[in-house]
Structure formats: C-alpha cells, structure tokens
Write a structure and sequence with these properties.
With about 350 residues, the chain is of the alpha+beta class. The protein has helices at about 5-15, 30-40, 55-60, 95-115, 130-140, 185-190, 205-215, 225, 235-240, 245-250, 265-270, 275-280, 290-305, 310-325, 330-350; strands at about 20-25, 70-75, 85-90, 120-125, 145, 150, 160-165, 195, 200, 230. It binds iron/sulfur cluster (2 copies).
C-alpha cells in the first residue's frame, strides 16, 4: 500500500497551534553512536537519567509496536523580555511545555485515531528516550546548529519539540535546510563556561545543566560564570544570528501560553522562599523541575555576584543567616558561604 501523504498530518499539527511540523520514518537515528560516545565521555554530567534506556534511543521503533513513522512538531516560544531580577531561561517562563504540548498532541492522536481506527499513536514530549533534534531535522523542521539546538533558519531556535510515533506509514517530508552555521562561532565564543565545541555540549560545564539538573553542590569554579542565571541559560541562543527578528520569525508568532508569567524574580525573594512561596511563584511552569533547595542554592550563587546591588545589605544578612543555620541543607549553606566570600572579595577590590 502506498504511504499516506504527509500533508494532512502536517496541516492538522499547524491547525492545532504548532509552528512547525513534519514527518520522518521510524528508522534509527544516524547520530546514535555519537550520542553514545558523548555519554561514554561523561558529557551528560548530572543528567544521569540519560544513561537509562540507551538501546531505545538507537531503536525508536521499540517505543511502539509496529511503528512506521514519527510526526515531529515544534512550538515557538517567546524569548524573555524581563529587566532586572534573576535570569530564568525563556522556555521555562510560560506554562510548562510538557503539559501543554502533551495535551495538544493527545488531542491530535485522538483525532487521528478517529480517522484511522486500526492505527496506534504515541505522543512524546521529553517523555521517551528519543534523539528528538535529529528526528526533527530529518522531518525538515530545521538543522541542528553548533550550539546543539534545532534551528529553523529565518525563524531561529526558540523551539520546543514534540513527537507522535505511529503505526501508519506516512511519506516523509523533505529535509532540505542548509547548514545554519557555516563559519559562525558566536555561540561558542559567548558561552561563559566554554561548554560548547561545534555540535557538542559538555553538560558538566553548562549553566543550564548545572542549575536545572544538578541536585548537589555546584563547584565554586563556575559561580562567577553563572552570573545572574538562576535557572537555565539562554546565552548561546541569544547570540545566534538566526534568533534576530526576520520576516519569517515575525510571521511565526510564539505560542501565547509560552509568554512570561513569572515576571521579575528577585534574588532576595528566592533566598527566602518557603515551599509555599516557591509554589505561588512558579507553579505551572517548567521551573518546578528544580527543587526548593536547588533554587535557593542557585540564588546564593547569583547573590555572590551582586556586590553593587541596592539591596546588598539585606542580601548579605540573609546569606549570613543561611550560612549559619544548622538546619539548612549543606549545598545551600555552602553556596551562601561562598557567596559571602565572593561579595567580600569584590568589595575589597573596589575599595
Ligand atoms: S546554555 Fe549557557 S552555559 Fe550552556 S552551552 Fe549555552 S551558553 Fe554555554
Ligand atoms: S551562533 Fe552561529 S554557530 Fe552558533 S548555532 Fe547560531 S549560527 Fe550556528
């Protein structure tokens, strides 16, 4: 039987609110060996969960019996435009994409089950071990850049990815994007921790991985470089020329639910968060990935770079209270002590 045309499925995805959609085969990803080597080299750092289900990343077909095709989608999100406070990665400032995109994809699966009662569909949004950037590239949604993000040339890399595996045989959409990077190295040059080499991320050095995934102390060698980043880091996307406003990006608006709902995130507030105050501020966003202790640890690190801040006296006294409180978790206390040391050092160097 001839494969189903991709057009209808792509159109359904676009009508459901996704900015980009395409189809690829269930064939194993070519870059699985590169990913394996990356794991072998320990580049995943604190993301130990990546070691699980390694075989499935080689064989997406094993995620759904008799799967033939993968429908790939991308949502565009809004880059942050908040002045002041601690920095939170743009993708996490709106509604939690896992929940919203999963709901959208489940609705599409239901629609397709109605049209193809014999077919199976499985929606994934970070919920299955897929090499999703390669799959999206294969489906024609863009090309992976040297910053390891999927880039739609002209529309940029502010993209959240999702997939639907299906037993339907759907004709793949063309993957005809040119290399978005050529001789550019802006992301590599701008990364404050030298975590990037072309198409390879060392997550042990990456601020995003450290602040979001690492559940223990963050080595003091990174504290200065972390700067104002409380949760995640957007630097290697901010500097990318593909993320400048273009006719195409203007025509592909970000999804309304991705828009900032956090507003200003004052460091002093986070240092003093209780479980209830944390919940009130970040409930419903992807920032909930980091625990209260992780966020307060991160806030201590950010505070250590705030020697010139108007609230310095209050920040310092909260740091001292944390550093001296026997009931504070060790990683928060250690981060507070290091922040006080850095503040003192920079005040001394200024006098
Ligand atoms: S997210 Fe930040 S720290 Fe990580 S690679 Fe990009 S610029 Fe470097
Ligand atoms: S900043 Fe330059 S090198 Fe990095 S991903 Fe963008 S285009 Fe590629």
């Amino acid at each position: 039987m001839a494969p189903h045309a991709a057009h209808t499925f792509v159109q359904d995805c676009l009508e459901a609110g996704f900015a980009l959609a395409g189809v690829t085969s269930i064939d194993p990803p070519e870059r699985a060996p590169i990913f394996e080597q990356w794991l072998e080299d320990g580049m995943h750092g604190a993301m130990q969960w990546m070691e699980r289900h390694r075989d499935l990343r080689h064989q997406p077909a094993d995620l759904l019996e008799d799967a033939r095709s993968i429908i790939c989608v991308a949502t565009r999100y809004a880059p942050a435009d908040v002045k002041g406070g601690a920095a939170v990665a743009s993708y996490a400032r709106g509604d939690d994409y896992h929940k919203v995109m999963k709901k959208q994809l489940h609705a599409l699966c239901d629609q397709w089950r109605g049209a193809f009662p014999d077919a199976q569909f499985r929606a994934c949004v970070d919920t299955a071990p897929l090499l999703e950037r390669e799959l999206a590239e294969r489906a024609g949604l863009g090309r992976v850049g040297k910053n390891t993000m999927l880039i739609d040339p002209g529309a940029g890399s502010w993209l959240l990815l999702g997939e639907v595996l299906t037993t339907l045989d759907i004709a793949p959409t063309p993957a005809d994007h040119d290399d978005p990077c050529a001789s550019c190295t802006r992301c590599i040059d701008a990364c404050p921790t030298e975590a990037l080499s072309p198409w390879r991320l060392d997550a042990r050095r990456c601020i995003s991985a450290m602040t979001i995934e690492q559940r223990s102390e963050i080595d003091v060698q990174w504290h200065d470089a972390i700067g104002e980043w409380l949760f995640g880091c957007d630097i290697c996307q901010d500097v990318c020329p593909h993320n400048q406003l273009t006719e195409r990006s203007a025509a592909l608006p970000s999804a309304p639910w991705t828009r900032d709902r956090l507003g200003l995130v004052p460091v002093l507030d986070v240092l003093e968060w209780t479980p209830q105050r944390r919940e009130a501020k970040i409930a419903g966003t992807a920032v909930t990935r980091a625990t209260l202790d992780m966020m307060r640890r991160n806030a201590c690190i950010v505070a250590g770079g705030m020697a010139g801040h108007a609230d310095l006296d209050s920040i310092r006294s909260v740091l001292e209270a944390i550093a001296n409180a026997a009931d504070e978790p060790e990683m928060v206390r250690d981060a507070a002590r290091e922040a006080i040391r850095r503040l003192d050092a920079s005040l001394r160097s200024e006098s």
